[in-house]
Amino acid sequence: MKAAVLKSLGSPLVIEDVPKPTIGTGEVVVDIVATRVLSYMNEVFDGTRNYALDLPVIPGPGGIGRVRAIGPDATKLSVGDWVFCDPTVRSRDDTVAPDIALQGLTATGPGGMRLQQHFRHGSFAEQMRLPTENVKRLGAIAPEEATQWCALGTLLVPYGGFLAANLRPGETVLVSGATGNFGSAAVSVALAMGAAGVVAPGRNERILADLVRRFGNRVRPVKLTGNEDHDREAMKRAAPGPIDCVFDIMPPSVSTEVVRAAIMTVRPYGRVVLMGGVGMAGGAGLELPYPWIMRNCISIHDVWMYPPDAASRLIALVRAGLLRLEEYETMAFDLDHANEAVAHAAANGGPFKLTVIRP
Q1: Where in the chain are the domains?
Q2: What's the CATH code, domain 2-151+328-358?
Q3: pTM surpassing 0.90?
Q4: Which residues of 311-349 are buried (b: 16+ CB within 10 A; e: fewer)?
Q5: How far is CA 160 from CA 181, 303, 314, in A?
Q6: pLDDT class for 285, splitting at 50, 70, 90?
Q7: Can you say whether the dihedral through the CA atoms of 170, 329, 84, 344 is positive or negative?
């Protein structure tokens, strides 16, 4: 089969024929129809992000495809089913604290690297092998719809954060990083889950206005000034009531003062979700005041990815019409032009933009 292979950091992807994946017990092989290209994939491939990858590897975190082969433990899947390939692979021998690898992207710790050695190859290929539990049925879709369904991979990240914080209908949310790719997805997911209002702070007034245009007056935009105290009070004033949950997904390049200003808008007994990149590039830590956390009974949820059942639950939100994949503007490339797709994703990584490879 044809695949895009990363052979060394800093080198282009090589398009070549590789052996087809072979199926084992507890595994499924999927024909990949469409797979998203992360906006920072170029930084993974050149080593800037320092992701743990056992090279050479076929990259690509998840995708949309059709089941080609199933193992004996699959009782609901059928050959030909349209499915979402969930890249979050978990070890099966410790359900309390499993090791995790993001198939085709990275891994954490020695256990995650052991997972990656087996489920190493991702979705930049004509076929992909996954654990059975990572293959989620979509129901019937048209082949051309597979491109937009790739947005699930982006939407799942904030959905996992809100599930961890037990976001409830009628609550008020603040999304720190609302003008970014994952932050704008968080706005749409929070509203789909029934948030009464979403405070959306940011510096880009055009993007803030676009969020209001897309989702209406439940979005409360706030233009940030860079003054921590001023911005904190402005965000509180914009909220329709006390802020129940703050969701942070700021990138590593953002200062800790900006992140702290947003986090400390949360009400007493409120919840904070940390899914961003603060400190990953070095520099100062977040330095939240211990007395403020303790005396206000603030719950802080540090979340990487999402629980195993999240993809199926998110698919149900889409099927119910509560979450619209049509918000996403897509650009598709074939597998022969995978390097061009990576460059396009880096240059076009804004809100509701999706770069896709269709093998």
Answers
A1: 2-151+328-358, 156-302
A2: 3.90.180.10
A3: yes
A4: beebbebbeeeebebebbebebbebeebbebbbbbbeeb
A5: 16, 7, 10
A6: confident
A7: negative
